[in-house]
Each structure stands twice: as structure tokens, then as C-alpha cells.
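Entry 12.
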Amino acid sequence: MNSNPSDRNQIIIRTSVIGIVANIFLVIFKMIVGLLANSIAVILDAVNNLSDAVSSVITIIGTKLAGKRPDKKHPYGYGRIEYLSAMIVSAIVIYAGITAFTESFKKILSPETPDYSVVSLVIIAGAVIVKFFLGRYVKGVGKKINSGSLISSGSDALFDAVLSLSVFISAMIYILTGLSLEAYVGLIIAVFIVKSGIEMLKETLDDILGKRIDSETSMEVKQTISEIDGVHGAYDLFVDNYGPDYYIGSVHIEVPDTMTADQIDRLSRQIGEVVYKKHGIIMAGISVYSMNTTNDTMIAVQSEITRLVMEGDKVLQMHGFYADEQEKTIRFDVVIDYSADDDFFTQLCEKVRQKYPDYKVFIARDYDISD
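Predicted 3D structure (C-alpha cells):
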């Protein structure tokens, strides 16, 4: 988690301003070249740069709004507004692509002959170089501070460099052969712009809907927790984000049944501190699984049930086991693959209950939300 959100916001705004200035200059030069050379491809390339500039403005507005301090109505802050601004940017990109497609198709039906000059070719070539380095810079900053908007803008700029290069190549082909590919190149550009916008929109929607953290991060966090003295296992890790670099999580830990409330309290606070320092995740909830450590009979029961349950090819994990010989109860959780149907779980429960008919068996079905 970024230690100073205001610094992160300033970096996003500064980077976006650089993108706006660069794209405005490209729009001006490309539009002049496109009109003078009667080139639909260059004009559409200029329109694409204009949409990039507008996208950067929206990114700045979204960053400003997302930087508002938490209040009574929104105690987790306004960080997710960045995702909404990214969605608007995606919609603008898609609209620009559809418009470009329409105009290119019109030019195919009613073709016009372009007229390139040396100056126009130099400007187009310069635009390719500018967009390439701008894209690398913006995307690099986005990755450094974990800004989805900047990463998308940077990727889009790198893609624009490729599109501008295709315009330059089509211009050279026309000069050398007299073959005009303007409208067709514009059509290809439009298709790729729409595709890029849809991909950006899909990624943003995933963030808004909520998606699982990657397996590597999940394993690292659980490993960190498990290495703390007193913890015999970490399970059911759930991490949600309320904006880039603002993660809140919960986890189940397995501890000996001999631990006191005071020991568990100190252990929970230690876990929260360690996980935050190492992974930047605020552990809002730490629940406890009590494990049998003093009753050899129940330890043997656990071993037998573990063997029985893990025979199923769709059972990914079993945890949270605790058996009470006096109360005649057995409880544990099983993590089952998403492909398993309800009958599989029902049969699994029945198999355990048949093995231990004198016990009340409580089995909770978990899903692999973080593994």
C-alpha cells in the first residue's frame, strides 16, 4: 500500500498532464497534415489522439474525486471512483473507434486521392516516436504506483504508435506505387481501437465486480501468517480492494485449543501488523479455528477423516477440523473445486457420517476464492 496517497495522486495528475499536452500537439499537427494531404487515415489518427487527451482529463478528475478523505457515508473512502473514470475512458475509446470505422467505410465507398508532402511524412514519423516514448513512460509510471488508468493509457499510447506507423507505411506505399490504402488502413485502425476499448472496459468491470487476488499473492500472505509463532495454518483468505492500493482482508487461523483469549488477542494484533507492513493489506477480520492438541483419540479421528475426505478428486483442501468427544461433534471445512456439483458434496458428507454415526458432523463447503 502506498504510504502517501496524496503523493500517488500528484504523480497520476502530473503524468496525465504530460499526456494531455503531448496529445494536443499531436492532434494539431496530425489534423493539419490530414486535411492538407486529404488523408482520412491521418485525420482518424488525430481523432484517436484527441480521445486520448480527453481520457487523460477524465483520469485527472477521477483521481481528484478518488482522493477525497473517508467520511461517515463512505468509511472506506472514494478510491473506487478511479475504476469509474477508467470505465468512462474505455467508453470514449470505443466511441472513437466506432466513429473512425464509420468514416473509413464512407471513404471506401467514395475514395479520395491523398497528397503527401515531405513535411507531412516527417510529422507522421515524429508522431510515431512521440507516442512510443510517451506510452512507455506513462505505462511505467502506472505500474510503479499501481494505477490502472495510467497503465491503460500507456498501453493505448504504445498501440497508437503502432497505428501511426501503419499510417506512415501506407503513405510511403502510396508515394512509391500510387496505391492508396488510406481508407482500408483507417478501417483497420478503427477495429483495433474498438478492440482496445472493449479490453479496457472488461478489465475495469472485473475490478468493480471484484476479482480474486492472484495465487502468488495469496500464497505469500498465508505463508507470512503461518510463519508467525502460534499459528498452525492460515485459510479462507479474502481480500477486497476499495481502490488501487487500498486492500482490506480477512482470514481464518488455526491455533491450539489450549490458547487463552489473551494469547489469541495478542496473536491477532501481531498478524495484522506483520501483514500490513509486508503486504500492505489491512486485516479487518481474523477468525479462529481451534485444533485438537490434547486428546489423542480425536487427533486419530482427524487423521482418518482427512484420509477419507481427500480421496475425492475434487476436494482441494480440508481445514478447521475440531472434534469434541464429550459433545460428540465433528466440524471442519472443505474447499471444493467449482466444477463439483451439489451431489458430490452431499455424498462426501454422507460418507463421513456413515464412518462416525455416533457423532453430529458439521461440514462447511468453501470455494477456492484465493488459491
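Annotation: The two ends are 21 Å apart (CA to CA). Strands lie at 234-241, 247-256, 281-291, 315-324, 329-336, 360-367.
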